[in-house]
Design goal:
Blueprint: E1 16-22, H1 28-38, H2 44-57, H3 74-79, E2 86-91, E3 96-101, H4 109-116, E4 121-127, H5 134-145, E5 150-156, H6 165-178, E6 186-191, H7 215-221, E7 234-236, E8 239-244, E9 247-253, E10 258-259, E11 264-268, E12 272-281, E13 284-285, E14 289-290, E15 294-299, E16 310-313, E17 319-330, E18 336-337, E19 341-346, E20 349-362, E21 369-370, E22 374-375, E23 380-393, H8 400-403, E24 404-408, E25 415-424, H9 427-430, H10 440-446, E26 452-457, H11 464-477, E27 482-486, H12 487-490, H13 502-521, E28 525-529, H14 535-542, E29 550-556, H15 559-565, H16 570-575, E30 597-600, H17 606-617
Parallel strand pairs: 1-3, 1-4, 4-5, 5-6, 26-28, 26-29, 27-28, 29-30
Antiparallel strand pairs: 2-3, 7-16, 8-9, 9-15, 10-14, 11-12, 11-16, 12-13, 12-15, 17-23, 17-25, 18-22, 19-20, 19-24, 20-21, 20-23, 24-25
Helix pairs in contact: 11-17, 13-14
């Protein structure tokens, strides 16, 4: 017979968002499933399905497997692990809880970060028999990084260590040593058993030596605060609402503080100010709105406001910068290296950004700062970050909405990092781009040509240098002003200090792209002939130029054909293992997906390639 869901009363504390994390097989899903079951939160039809699935999968013998209440994906049930973030609601007469059960496997750390980004309390599960693991430390640091200030250390599976007090106390002591430098204000430790329910919703008869609260008692009474509670008014603009000529409203969610009619506000970036004419929630006007409210504001005077701007109290507006020190969790399959361009999304603003330098990575267990030239998947690091335009911000500790961000790969639109801003760097204030009277357009007009960058990419021996050389000769004959940047030649001077690791290759392209940009600014037609094997690096180069100035020219020949030509004998050496990280052999080449010009040197002669290039350029 099914259990009925208890109807909570209306007299209770504010809802609480939890993230439940731990390593694989620590018992996360079983623990929350037991809490749902013992709190009468499972509908009869749900329970019947779980009972049937328990018999089908046989994970708990003849007993019901309460973990199946959360392991909703077919793959999870077959493998016995949690892959996705499973959200469940639990209600008691005192409080409502939204619980995020996140994956334990290291490769799904991005899912854990998703759950932690909105949580107020983190429940860190530790298997009493396996102890504190690296993933325990990683989850704790990620939770702290994203602003979780209350942590519960739940030492689970105490039934497997005969309810031993010494085991629990040793793990508690070890965990508190780990969190000394993390910055979590509150850590509460308790011994529990998700399988039997001890110390979850009822006190344990098996552990009379523990006199603290049950997990549910603690969660029902924990008082959480947010730095935005007492902060000045901030509202990122999400949408400009103008249904007709008589109305213009600015929509968004209040990130901090309060707003009311008559209050003087400022729009940043910029310095436009106006009194608030009205505050609307839904279709009705209100006297005041606060943090978390979705509102529409109208102003007494006409000022320029766009999506991504921040409306703030005029007396205490947020800072604006384009250079930041930030902590990030890297979630990309390819390592993070400095110089590549990404999309940065922060509150409602989206700009192009790049990591200018990696200050250090963080050893998750000890917190030690390690020198790093790149960040691998699931590593935490501290970086310097530059954005293409100044953005309104606040340090994450002061305002999570204005201090948290994600980085998105511009090529595949995947989120590759989540981060938090620590503070602005000074460069934005004291280093600016100096404008001169003689512009790029004037220089190009003097030369009677359109300044452009023709970026040749392709495998070694595909014919890039040959075609580039012939093209420059033709352009010279026509009276054009050109310069040819060749990969080998540049490595004799400007890039002589670089090797052929992925980091060095990215820096190689970054330097050449910056030089090419200056040459285009000088009014030249610049021909760049570099293998440039990675799409992200080519996109980084493209991002330095104005629209239409950068043309990607794919000189296409198969690796087999290039190895057959092999004019420098490089493929033969690479195949013998004498050259490491050789593109097309031991290092990948990422073919352009949508180049402006695509030339196959297996089908066209070098001379025909030049004719095709000139035809398309003209």
């Amino acid at each position: 017979m099914g259990r009925e869901v208890t109807s909570p009363t209306s007299n209770r504390l504010a809802p609480l968002r939890l993230v439940l994390c731990g390593s694989v097989d620590d018992g996360k899903s079983t623990l929350i499933g037991r809490m749902l079951y013992d709190s009468n939160q499972v509908f009869a039809d749900q329970l019947g399905k779980v009972e049937a699935d328990s018999r089908r999968w046989g994970t708990q013998g003849e007993n019901i497997d309460l973990a199946l209440l959360l392991d909703g994906l077919q793959d999870e049930r077959e493998q016995g692990i949690t892959i996705d973030v499973a959200y469940r609601s639990l209600e008691t007469p005192r409080r409502r809880f939204i619980v995020a059960d996140v994956p334990g496997h290291e490769q799904y750390t991005r899912n854990m970060a998703t759950g932690a980004s909105t949580a107020q309390v983190a429940i860190i599960l530790v298997n009493a028999r396996r102890g504190i693991l690296p993933q325990t430390a990683r989850h704790t640091r990620i939770a702290a990084m994203f602003g979780v200030r209350h942590v519960v250390l739940a030492v689970n599976k105490m039934d497997l260590v005969d309810w031993d007090q010494a085991t629990f106390e040793a793990l508690e002591e070890e965990y508190r040593e780990l969190t000394d430098d993390v910055g979590v204000p509150e850590v509460v430790a308790m011994p529990v058993s998700g399988l039997t329910g001890d110390n979850l919703t009822r006190r344990s008869d098996n552990m009379p030596w523990y006199d603290g609260p049950t997990l549910l008692e603690h969660l029902e009474t924990v008082q959480v605060t947010d730095p935005g509670d007492d902060a000045p008014f901030r509202m990122p603009v999400q949408y400009v609402n103008r249904p007709h000529s008589e109305f213009r409203g600015y929509c968004g969610r209040v990130a901090s503080g309060t707003v009311k009619p008559g209050q003087r506000i400022r729009v940043v970036p910029g310095s436009s100010e106006s009194p608030v004419k009205s505050v609307l929630v839904g279709r009705g006007e209100v006297e005041r709105a606060g943090r978390g409210d979705s509102v529409t504001l109208t102003f007494s005077t006409e000022i320029d406001v766009t999506r991504g701007d921040v409306i703030a109290d005029a007396e205490d507006a947020p800072a604006v910068s384009d250079q930041f020190r930030a902590s990030i969790l890297w979630m990309g399959e390819q390592p993070l290296v400095a110089g590549r361009l990404y999309l940065l999304k922060m509150h409602t603003r989206e700009v192009t950004a790049k990591v200018t330098s990696i200050r250090h990575s963080v050893e998750v267990r000890t917190g030690e700062r390690l020198a790093a030239k790149q960040l691998e998947l699931n590593e935490i690091g501290v970086v310097n970050l530059a954005t293409s335009r100044p953005v309104p911000f606040a340090p994450f500790e002061e305002n999570g909405k204005l201090g948290g961000f994600i980085l998105v790969d511009r090529g595949n639109n995947r989120t590759v990092a989540a981060g938090t801003i620590s503070y602005a760097l000074m460069r934005a204030a004291n280093v600016t781009w100096q404008q001169f009277d003689i512009s790029r357009e004037v220089r190009a007009q003097l030369k009677r040509q359109d300044a452009r960058c023709l970026w040749f990419t392709g495998l070694s021996a595909s014919g890039k240098s040959t075609v580039a050389n012939l093209l420059e000769r033709r352009l010279y004959i026509e009276g054009r002003h050109t310069y040819l940047l060749d990969g080998d030649n540049v490595r004799h001077g400007l890039n002589a200090d670089l090797g052929f690791t992925e980091i060095d290759r990215t820096e190689n392209i970054r330097r050449v792209a910056e030089v090419a940009r200056l040459m285009v600014d000088a009014g030249l037609i610049v021909i760049v002939s570099f293998i440039s094997p990675f799409r992200a690096d080519r996109e980084m180069a493209r991002g330095l130029f104005e629209p239409g100035e950068f043309l990607e020219v794919f000189i296409d020949a198969s690796a087999e054909e290039c190895a057959r030509r092999d004019p420098k004998g490089l493929y033969a050496k690479a195949l013998r293992g004498e050259i490491k990280n050789f593109t097309g052999i031991s290092s990948p080449y990422e073919r352009p997906e949508e180049p402006e010009i695509h030339l196959s040197t297996e089908e066209l002669s070098p001379e025909d390639c030049v004719e095709e290039l000139l035809r398309k350029l003209n």
